[in-house]
């Protein structure tokens, strides 16, 4: 079947030279799709239009990575940091954990993992096939840059710790659906686990939620991960869009839509994420919620992070492309400023770090940073049942942010 299609494309090339670019691009897209989408054991159609493929755990794309040729998949972590990761004793009645939309139509069988199927359009929306699933610009939230940074258009409002060795981080993140003005802009809320130097070889592990039409073709709020070992230059990608992250969980799909979402002055929903380093194997593990161990980034992917992280950040990021000469109206968090507080502004709560004794502890000296506080801002606080927490976000364009 495939041969016939190939032959047909060749004939087109010979007969109509101007079709060359088109058909060779088509072939490349086909090749990429074949690489990305392993044959599934079962497929589930999600109400949001996504197709979730249940792929055998040992057939996942991660294992194509040259460093992982003979990798033996670890089906559970050797170690879990001490403490009660998400043991909030008092979950307020109107603050609920979330589920995944695709669960309405089925679950993946044992021995498989759910993979959001990459469509032709997902690839065509990227600026190039090489760029698919990667970050375009190098932009990290940098609280105290060594020299002034050029304006990348990326704006952040974050809390952070630095200056120690960190072996993990966790947070409970309020989930919203911020409005995103332009198709190439995005709005996300995440944590960053960082080591190395910002301009060269930064190693980064990232996880949270995002709204990005460029990545997913819609305005849904989606669970995501990201990793890089060279400050976004050549390595790494979102979710399972390249080899690297090894998933073992069969319930949660990276890149899937989160539902339900928080509403202003009404029901509030959150996700919880814990990332920690296995002290024995060195792998960085990720857990979603209180009982979904997602999988791990093998130690061999990283340089600096193969030892420990030197900085942890939590917060929001948007792209401001000023396409109409004014600040974007793309929202961060709920689209409301921190001052408005619970039910109105978005929050991160129970933020903790994993210390040198592999214990989950409250961070000391939590710093804050916002690039343009009249557009998006951040306020840290602490309270007995919410631990260390902060409100963050904003509406973007407003009279003080023209
Ligand atoms: C996403 O949101 C933008 C801006 O609010 C809107 O113009 C667009 O139609 C939406 N796209 C989809 C696919 O819902
Ligand atoms: C929020 O909800 C309460 C009770 O439902 C209502 O009295 C109040 O006016 C609302 N506030 C805003 C700003 O919408």
Write the layout of secondary structure elements.
Layout: H1 2-15, H2 20-36, E1 42-45, E2 51-56, E3 95-97, E4 99-100, E5 112-116, H3 120-125, E6 154-166, E7 168-174, E8 186-195, E9 203-212, H4 213-216, E10 222-228, E11 237-238, E12 246-247, E13 258-259, E14 268-277, E15 284-288, E16 292-297, E17 309-319, E18 346-354, E19 360-361, E20 367-370, E21 377-383, E22 387-393
Parallel strand pairs: 3-14
Antiparallel strand pairs: 1-2, 2-5, 4-13, 6-17, 6-20, 7-14, 7-18, 8-9, 8-17, 9-10, 10-11, 12-16, 14-15, 15-16, 18-19, 18-22, 21-22
Helix pairs in contact: 1-2
The structure holds 2-acetamido-2-deoxy-beta-D-glucopyranose (NAG) (2 copies).
Could you characterize what this model shows?
This protein has 402 residues and is mainly beta. It has one domain. Helix content is 10%, strand content 33%. The protein is built from four helices and 22 strands. Helix 1 packs antiparallel against helix 2. The longest helix has 17 residues. The termini are far apart. The protein binds 2-acetamido-2-deoxy-beta-D-glucopyranose (2 copies). One 2-acetamido-2-deoxy-beta-D-glucopyranose binds next to loops.
């Amino acid at each position: 079947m495939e041969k016939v299609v190939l032959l047909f494309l060749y004939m087109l090339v010979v007969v109509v030279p101007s079709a060359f670019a088109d058909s060779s691009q088509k072939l490349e897209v086909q090749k990429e799709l074949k690489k990305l989408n392993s044959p599934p054991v079962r497929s589930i159609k999600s109400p949001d239009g996504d197709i979730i493929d249940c792929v055998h755990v040992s057939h996942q794309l991660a294992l194509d990575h040259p460093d992982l040729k003979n990798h033996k998949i670890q089906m559970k972590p050797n170690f879990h940091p001490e403490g009660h990761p998400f043991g909030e004793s008092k979950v307020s009645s109107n603050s609920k954990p979330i589920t995944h939309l695709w669960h309405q139509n089925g679950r993946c069988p044992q021995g498989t993992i759910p993979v959001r199927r990459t469509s032709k359009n997902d690839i065509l929306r990227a600026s190039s096939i090489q760029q698919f699933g990667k970050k375009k610009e190098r932009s990290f939230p940098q609280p105290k840059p060594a020299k002034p940074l050029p304006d990348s258009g990326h704006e952040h409002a974050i809390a952070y710790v630095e200056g120690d060795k960190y072996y993990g981080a966790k947070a409970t993140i309020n989930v919203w659906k911020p409005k995103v003005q332009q198709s190439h802009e995005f709005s996300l809320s995440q944590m960053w686990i960082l080591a190395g130097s910002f301009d060269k070889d930064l190693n980064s592990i990232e996880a949270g939620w995002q709204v990005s039409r460029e990545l997913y073709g819609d305005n849904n709020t989606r669970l995501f991960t990201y990793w890089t070992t060279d400050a976004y230059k050549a390595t790494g990608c979102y979710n399972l869009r390249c080899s690297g992250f090894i998933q073992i969980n069969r319930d949660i799909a990276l890149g899937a839509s989160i539902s339900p979402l928080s509403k202003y002055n009404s029901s509030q929903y959150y996700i919880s994420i814990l990332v920690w380093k296995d002290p024995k194997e060195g792998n960085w593990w990720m857990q979603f919620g209180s009982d979904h161990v997602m999988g791990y980034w093998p130690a061999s992917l990283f340089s600096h992070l193969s030892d420990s992280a030197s900085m942890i950040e939590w917060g929001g990021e948007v792209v401001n492309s000023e396409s109409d000469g004014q600040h974007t109206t793309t929202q961060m968090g709920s689209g409301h400023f921190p001052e408005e507080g619970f039910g109105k502004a978005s929050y991160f709560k129970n933020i903790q770090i994993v210390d040198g004794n592999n214990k989950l502890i409250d961070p000391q000296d939590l710093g804050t940073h916002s690039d343009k506080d009249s557009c998006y801002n951040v306020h840290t606080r602490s309270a007995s049942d919410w631990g260390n927490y902060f409100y963050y976000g904003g509406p973007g364009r407003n009279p003080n942010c023209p």
